[in-house]
Task: structure prediction
Amino acid sequence: MDTPVSSWFQALRKRDRATKDTTTDIDSLTLEERAEQLEDLELRDISDRKLRKVLRDLDAQVEAIKE
Result:
């Protein structure tokens, strides 16, 4: 058996996904650039646990601003 193992299986297709830009300040973008960035990002499901955490953190930030 001189055939490489890789030839026995079909290669998995890599899924192209939009990546989050963590270096650009959203306020520095033009409206067109913002719209293009939103189109590039996929909508993803969010778990109930993550949603509760985000809402809790957001509530804490709002309370901190009020003080």
Notes: The chain has two helices and no strands. The radius of gyration is 21 Å. The helical segments are 31-40, 48-66.
